[in-house]
Amino acid sequence: MKAVSFFGASNGVAVSGNPNSDGSIGWYGSDGLILQTRNGGANWTVRYNRSNAAFNGVSCPSANTWIAVGVYEISGIDHAGWAITTDGGTNWRERYFTNITDPLTAVSFIDNNIGTVVGYNGLILRTTDGGFNWNTQTSRTTKNLNGVCFTDENTGVAVGEEGTIVRTINGGINWKSQNSSTTEDLYGVHFINANCGKVVGSNGIILHTSDGGITWKIQSAVTNNDLYSVYFANENICNTVGDNGIILRTTNSGSTSIFEEKHVESPKGYILSQNYPNPFNP
Known about the structure:
282 residues; four-stranded antiparallel sheet; globular
């Protein structure tokens, strides 16, 4: 799985897609899947499957509205694209940008209408009408952005390669670079509230903020594995997943958090195995 988003303790949506065998950016030819669980990750059901797509990020602002972002292959050419459902996965609306060939990497919606996506070369796009129209924003970076999280319609943080962190407090009209104190690539970001958030990235890097992303502190490393996604189950429990099936979990989300490490085997095929663990609802 590339990313997961939960709405409630038991209901969640995950997305996936594998790169080309030659390692190129284009991911067409590998099935792009959107899967749903209704029992906290014990079972997963495919709700959307496209052989010409791959997905990197997903956001579920409500039980019925899900937005997955990534890349579509159209007539042999990659295009940044997205798929949206407003009825819980029964019907889907597919869209892609004709002028953006690199994939979208992450998405954050704060309600059914207002959302932000990020991508390569500092790309940031924002919608206020549920994804029908998108406006380009100035990120003030040319680095690839890999993760984004908004806590309300105005305040958000995006993270990317070489320690890049940018923050907005006015809905993306202006983005400002923040000091991360690292040059590691950053992949995932999540906030449980307006103040408390974490960022994860390459070589086991974990950053913590307690002031809404203005300042960041590096936490003690417990692994050298790359970490791709981080998610708060509540104000105390925080989980992150990464390479080699690693799952890190803390029950003290403060700046002195201690993460416990365990490993799981990734599922094979389209239908995830019955016992596949959900790290975000342990």
